[in-house]
Amino acid sequence: LVWFFNFSTLPNFETTTTQPRQPTTSHKNMADHRAAGNEAFKRGDWETACEEYTQGIARLLSNRCAARLKQDKPSQALEDAEAAVRESSGTWHKAHFRRAQALLALGRQGEAIEGLQRCLQCPQPAPDRHSNEAVLAKVYPPFIEQYYPPLVGNQAICVRYMNGRRGKGVVATASCLAGQTLFEENPLVWHRFVKKVDNFEACSYCMRTRLCFDTCPPALVDALRSLYGDSPPKPFEHCPRCNLGYEVYCSSACRDAAWSLFHRFLCPRNVEGSTQPSADDSPMHQLIALCRAHERTNPLKIARVFAQVLSAVGDNVSNTAVLAAFQPFRNFIANEEPSNIDEAALDLIKQALPDARLDPICTLSIFRQLNGAFIRNAQRLSPVSELHTALIESDDRRPTLLQLIQQQVGPVTLEELLESQLMQGLTAWGSGMFEIGNSMNHSCEPSAISVTCEETFALRMVATRDVRAGEELCISYIDETEPLGKRQQRLRDMYLFDCDCDKCAREGGTA
Predict the structure, then answer these.
(1) Residue 325 — very low, low, confident or very high, per pLDDT cuts 50/70/90?
(2) Are 147 and 436 in contact (CB under 8 A)?
(3) Is 386 within 8 Å of 375 (Cβ atoms)?
(4) Residue 432 φ/ψ, nearest 5 degrees
(5) 289: part of which helix (H) or strand (E)?
(6) How far apart, in whole angstroms, are the C-alpha atoms of residue 167 and residue 377?
(7) How far apart are CA 329 and CA 110, in angstroms?
(8) Which of 26-35, 151-160, 185-194, 394-403 has the lowest mean pLDDT?
(9) Could you give the 3-state DSSP secondary structure of residue 143?
(10) CA–CA separation, 68 and 73 (whole Å)
(11) Is 380 exposed, middle or buried (0-12, 13-18, 19+ CB in 10 A)?
(12) Region 490-507: what's the mean pLDDT?
């Protein structure tokens, strides 16, 4: 017996706080903006004048970027392009295109691809769009072919470039029946959802819960006593250095893995002779308190991203090494998504990680881009408890455990019990970013769904129907059972695209 927990219908615990952006559709040149600015100045419309002059400056910087690229000065060209992106508030396609050109000239292919994708998200004339898509189609496939095969391994899938609109996608390399596993993957970065008060402890690394007699629901105590006998689970371990309450581990293996990957950089007591008066006054303690107060988890994931970059670069002090280590996270980059605590959270992260090597990436813009990526693309995680595992997998123990629980809650089938709030409340909910899973495109008729049936934080992608070899595998980013209009609006607001899948085409009368 295998029971799958479906994450696609779970509530969105951390959502966008801003209204969808309305980018400018202006395609005026520099002279047009200057003239419009002069007219606005004459009539005393200072706000319009400043906006027109700013857009004109962005175009001037873009032109100088192009000239510097001709001079073989890509570093200076990149400075001009990034200034043009800022001056145009990130809404002018050509500024992003110039930035991508400069990054390609510097050999920073992954960042250039991200720039081209952002370029294509901006309004632009059809000829420019076709040209930009052609450039992306030229540089993106070689990057994908080099980057993703080691991540995929011997699983029966591959990551391919689909087209300029869809970008990359995941394709089945062998046929698969409905219900079969398509692939599994561990998260690149993850964290348990934080609340003002947690109901129970969970491992800070693997997110597994530990059920104790005195903290679990009364209806499950007899079942737990039967499961554990006279040997209840050992208490969670703390970091021996900082001993902070929010950093706990189910085993020494998880503690050591967390230390190696991120905690050694975030631990306030890692540095001997630390000037922190106490661990409770550390920047990380203040950050967790801030996130709890606002029930925002993403700043803690972002802190781990920067810590993992430091872990990857080791003693290397070059900016190139830092940018290369950040590339896996840059692949997730989306539009910026501000929050009401981002500046305060970033300041605390900088205090917790006072390493100058992070300066190129530890910026407010990148913080907000990561926040946007997590909001739109993070997959739900909820490793099941040992009681779940015993009920699902143990043929010997299942009847006794089920009977003990039925004596407390009344007649209930195994399926009904596993779907109940009683059992789902035993797990720690969180989210993570997956390099393969987050490469999957959307369809309102998904061919795959993310599930878990183990005591791990791994993502398991399962076929929802029979899949042919060579077919693109798609998931649904939203509740695909909603009416066409609601689906289209939700995708437009959250993911900035109009869905043209077969289901939308049929329901819209365009099939």
Answers:
(1) very high
(2) no
(3) no
(4) -150, 165
(5) helix 283-294
(6) 15
(7) 10
(8) 26-35
(9) helix
(10) 5
(11) buried
(12) 90
Residue 475 CA to residue 250 CA, distance in Å, equals 32
The answer to whether the beta carbons of residues 7 and 382 sit under 8 Å apart is yes
> How many angstroms separate the CA atoms of 75 and 84, rounded?
14
- For residue 14, pLDDT beyond 70: no
Model confidence at 250: pLDDT above 70: yes
**Is the entire prediction scored with pTM above 0.70?**
yes
Residue 195 has φ and ψ, to the nearest 5°, of: -130, 175
221-228 and 386-393 helices, crossing angle to 10°: 80
Tell me the three state secondary structure of residue 176. strand
| Higher per-residue confidence, 490 vs 164 | 490
pLDDT at 290: 96
**Token pair in block for residue 278:** 């106490």
CA–CA separation, 295 vs 282, rounded Å?
20
How far does CA 224 lie from the centroid of its chain? 35
Average pLDDT score over residue span 172-184: 96
**Cα–Cα–Cα angle for 172, 178, 184, nearest 5°?**
55
Determine the Cα angle at 337 with ends 334 and 340, to 5°: 160
Does residue 402 contact residue 301 with C-beta atoms inside 8 Å?
A: no
pLDDT > 70: percent of the chain: 91
Which is nearest to 481 in space by CA: 473, 490, 472, 494?
490
Residue 488: the pLDDT is: 94
Structure tokens at 435: 């390099």
Under DSSP, the state recorded for 11 is -
Number of H helices, E strands in the chain: 21, 13
DSSP assigned state of 52: H
pLDDT band with cut points at 50, 70 and 90 for residue 15: low
Residue (of 235, 230, 233, 219) closest to 401 by Cα position: 219
Q: What is the CA radius of gyration of the chain?
A: 25
Residue 264 has a pLDDT of: 94
User: Two tokens at 24?
Assistant: 């400018």
Q: Cα–chain-centroid distance for residue 64?
A: 35
pLDDT at 51 over 60: yes
Alpha helices per DSSP H over 166-274: 221-228, 252-258, 264-266
Structural tokens at position 466? 């029979």
The SS3 call for residue 483 is coil
Q: Is the pLDDT score of 121 beyond 90?
A: no
pLDDT, position 454: 62
Cα separation of the two ends of the chain: 40
Q: Do strands 237-238 and 189-192 pair parallel, antiparallel, or not at all (unpaired)?
A: unpaired
Exposed (0-12), middle (13-18) or buried (19+): which is 354, by Cβ within 10 Å?
Answer: exposed
